[in-house]
Amino acid sequence: MSTASRMAPLDRKQYDLFGAAPAQDARPRPCASDTGRRFIVGNAHEIVIGATRLEDWLKQSDQHTPFVVAHLLEQQDWLAFEGRYAGTGRAPYSPRQMMGLILYGVMQGLHSLRELERLARLDLGCMWVTGGITPDHANIGRFIVLHEDSLTQEFFESLTRTILKASGSSSARLAGDGTVIEAACSRYNLLKQEAVRARAQAATAALERAPDDRAAKQAQQRSSQCQTIFDARLAARQHSGKGTESLRISGTEPEAMVQRLKRGQGYGASYKPSVLANENRIITALALDASSETRVIASMLDQSARTTGAQAEEVLLDAGYFDDEVIEATLARDVSLLCPDGQWPAVPRDDGLFHKSAFDYDEQTDSYRCPAGQILLLEAKSRKTLNTREHRVYGASTCGDCHLRAKCTKAAQGRRIKRYPEDEQREALRVVMQHPQARRIFSQRKAIVEPVFSSLRGQQGLNRFRRRGLAAVRREFALHVMAHNLSRAVALQRALFAFLWATLLVLRKFGSTLRARPLVRLPRFNRSHLGAS
């Protein structure tokens, strides 16, 4: 048989791949609804590059990423995805290969649907992951919207669970952090209260003049949503006693919060995504809120427990999470929290006076000891009202001649300390954080979680969200997180062989002299510490 006749079948496959139609035919696939739905399923083993099959070409080029991504995606259950399609009509693309295209593209730092469409046609690694399917940008966008509910929860948890198992990663110790990422709107077109109301009135008037105008209806809905959100934030500020003159909102992205951006970029409409990551920097839980990092801790701990199959033993958070809601969330789940107080060790307040954390509370005598050694006794008790919380007031009558008075108080009657019910938990956490072992473990937090956001920004280009609306932004962030976890799976697999080989060499040479060191266990911060601070 001649060379030309032997290569003819391969050449035909290659021409079909770059033709107008996919190289594969639709074939039956199992469907959750048992409708016999057919999907367009690619076959990467049939793709060739010249005279070399794609699989061999990638191996010869030392391209491991496509194989790892494809293998991990093959282990997922796709019945829930397939069940969302109707049983009749034109066959859609396989959900597994569509998801592979999206995640593989995000791993390369691609964000737009047209970039993903181009990647599917030109990138050889992507062809292996997708089997050679070539969906257009509209199909990719519809796929993301159709399956948005699974992306942030069920599928994320399933994929992460597979990655953790494949990498042998432990999630007993987690580190959490959040960041601020700008929304998809201009920071120079923000609206104040008068502009919001004027915009809503103008949109309502335009709709009354043309009630059948679709564009007028959409404009009225957007302006109404903008005013509703603005009024809610205005009421919240007024209730907390904060000023309202600086309150602004984006007319095109009202769900975003105007807040200070990272890296000295000033203020802009933005969101706060948060993650929990293990020691291998695999993200086990994600959340996205308009402005709060502490509000989402409880839900992330629950998601991490579902993903890993067990609640984390320890979570490391920076001083920004020293919050009553965070402390209560970890105590309720028996998770040991390591989190320093933002004012501890004791530092002066903004007015230069000693912070409350500089005063030591003694539960037995129900009193405080100030930095000068004087005792502050209980003077009054206050019940909860509409404007104040329940608290107790402690003071001393010996502040007049104190040599630290200038650094402690400016009040004529001396320094007063208010003690709230949650102060017991705060003080217990401060006691735990004084432990040298706790400080050593907490020092690992930066190395665990901060490189995660560096990777999301630097490698995947998540410096600004491209979608609008809280739901769409959550979808976008979930895709970035899953792509990051796949990248970590690739990196860990590559490092595994080198680590095993180095370990074997060390054991051969020094195995007889190695001795196990005793393990020093840190007392867990839980409810047993309350009342013992």
TrEMBL record:
Residues 370-488 form the Transposase DDE domain. InterPro entries: IS1182_transpos (IPR047629), Tnp_DDE_dom (IPR025668), Transposase_InsH_N (IPR008490). Residues 77-144 form the Transposase InsH N-terminal domain. Pfam families: DDE_Tnp_1_6, DUF772. Coiled coil: none annotated. This is IS1182 family transposase. It comes from Paraburkholderia pallida.
